[in-house]
Predict the structure.
Amino acid sequence: MNTSGENLILKDIASEMKDAYLDYSMSVIAARALPDVRDGLKPVHRRILYTMYGNGLYPEKPFRKCADTVGNVLGQYHPHGDASVYDALVRMAQDFSLRYPLVHGHGNFGSVDGDPPAAYRYTESKMSKISMRMLTDIDKETVDFMPNYDDRLQEPVVLPSRFPNLLVNGSTGIAVGMATNIPPHNLGEVIDGACCLLDNPNAGLDQLMEHIKGPDFPTGGIIMGRSGIRAAYATGRGKIILRAKTHIEQHKNGRERIIVTEIPYMVNKARLIERIADLVKEKKVDQISNIRDESSRKGMKIVIELKRDANAQIVLNQLYSFTQLQDTVGVTMLALVKGEPKTLSLKQMLEEYIKFQEEIITRRTIFDLKKAKERAHILEGLLTALDYIDEVISIIRSHYTVQEGKAALMERFGLDDVQAQAIVQMPLGRLAGLEREKIQTEVDELHAKIAEYNAILADEQKIRAIVKEELLEIKEKFNDPRRTELATIEGEVDIEDLIPEESCVVTLTRFGYLKRQPLDVYKTQRRGGRGISGMTRRDEDFVSDIYTCSTHDYLMFFTNKGKVYRIKGYEIPEGSRTSRGTNVVNILPLEQNEKITCVIKTSDIAAENKYYVMVTRNGIIKRTEYNAYINVRKSGLIAINLDEGDELAWVKITNGSDDLILATRNGMSIRFNEEDARSMGRTARGVKAIALDEGDQVVGMVVAEEGKDILTVSQSGLGRRTDVSEYRIQTRGGKGLRNYYCDKNGPVAGFEKVDSENDIILITDSAIIIRIPVDQISKQSRYAGGVKVMRVDEETSIIGIAAVEKEEESEQDGDSSSENELSAQTDETVETADLPQPDPEKEQEQISRLLDAAMQEEE
């Protein structure tokens, strides 16, 4: 090959085609077909809005011909043909294409019937009110700019987009080898979801879907079922069944007719009517007599007249099957993240948007801080000049040029060039005394702003708070009701609906094994019995806590490290009476050496004037508003910051003015009003609740309630009820009052609030569980030792108690004289040696009879 005089590059054609196609593909993906995750816009839409913003086509200004806007976009930023620009502009103005149109159009911009828009020389447009929020603060260096196609101008890489436009208006696009189809959503719901994630970065999909119910299409309709929505939000891909909104009317002569008022998104109404007419001609649907389109400016209305004796519901089902009255919307949540196409879940989209808005607020604050400092600097120079105005005038008059005067001022007063320039340009009106006061006031205001800006930049939480505040302001102004309904379809059942709601007992062992059992497993037994075996256990393991709840209750798991987790009751695996259970690390994401210390049931509804009161083993108390923990999910949240060596032990829900009673292992107690402990933030440490002696620790906390008794049980099995009034109110932080004499009766094992409608469940360190009615335990003073509630040997101790609701029918059997003998002793303190010792064989025989009787009743 003769190549003289030419510059030729020899390259394999297959390699060249591959490289060229890849370059083309990436150009289509990144610069044409896919939206950016931050502002939800493709380059052409971004350039249209920025051009209209630059041309002053604000909502309050007059309309301007679309030809002018299209020409400016083509000439300045987007040299790809006028059709591509005008088509994009038209879609941004169609209220049946965008949930919140970004362009306000004037003229024929097409219709839902598929009518084309008029040519751009006939139509006019300007920015809509909400699109102005897409460009808020763009002049404050909040986003990066890049050169346009010919390096003459600068265009934004992304718009500030002060609301989550990608989800709000959605996006569709076909690139090379990939496509995106993100449905539109309700602005208020999306903002609520973003605020939820701002408040709780660990929020899961379930919690986000409490705010973002599903897509909200501009043409309305009904979404059938939630499974497709959940799949799309969880994985970024899913299918949504969208059905037209219809109703059946009774017409004259007993005939019925179907009225269609809303159709699925992106369905052409004219073609839909044509399709129904074709079905009638083809006799696939033979019960329709007439079809009319009665749509007007008031709304859509398609009337489908039926023949006499026709079944309207059957016809409607046929139309759902054969026409786009029911359509499937494929969801592919694909967007550009840092220039790369990624399929994103709902949470990932919101996280990317929040991260972008934090950057916007940071850059805006830096810009405002810089401007404030520059302005304050100049004004401080002016104040200096006004303080020495006569000398300043003399210096300026004594020099022949401005530059010489500036230099003299800089040397005399220590000013810089900027300040000196402002002084020489100062008008004579600034010499007035009132003007000086204005300058001083402005300087003071600027210094306050500078301090505020610095505080914002130093605190990420303040930045997130600003993002939330500004989002809520947009929601308040632009939010509107949801248009698309959500309906549950037959055959789609929430997993929770399959779980029967029943009372259950949740047990937790020292080694962290958790299990759930029906409450009736623990049959009521007589006071003083041995109980039944609660579970098999590994060596040295024992049941440490027991709780009662419903399978549909939320359970809040507070750990020794001060964290809190939340799951539903049915999510705890059910076990048999003797099974060990499931290790809690397989249910909750606990850290190493983290253990569950407290479990309470709660609702998922925000409540005012409710508080969580937390008490640690070392007597520290913290009170936090209930709503601070409303967003807890399985990943957990920090509940309290702990001192070294301390651990969180007790948590109660209070109403803001309750009295609290704490008891210690060595027999002390204290009662004080919860308002003595001021409300604190979620991660605060707390304050001292009770002063503990060395070696002592808190063993229980209850919320005082009139009419209730306080049950104290010792490790040796003695127990007594005491009227709550015997615990007088004191001041938080003191040593408290004597609650139990431990030298004589042993350390305190449990401390609970009970009444006659309760049963009490006691647990020993050898895994023996017994359930007895509370009214079999005598009521005594704070100075009494109590009666024997459970017989334990020298090597066994009671380690926990739980109050539960009394069974409706408690089977009790045995010698009544023996019962009377025990009851006669309830008014006096009973020493361990004085208790009658039941015969073990008879007792076990009695328990067997009771269980057999109960089983026969159930059968």
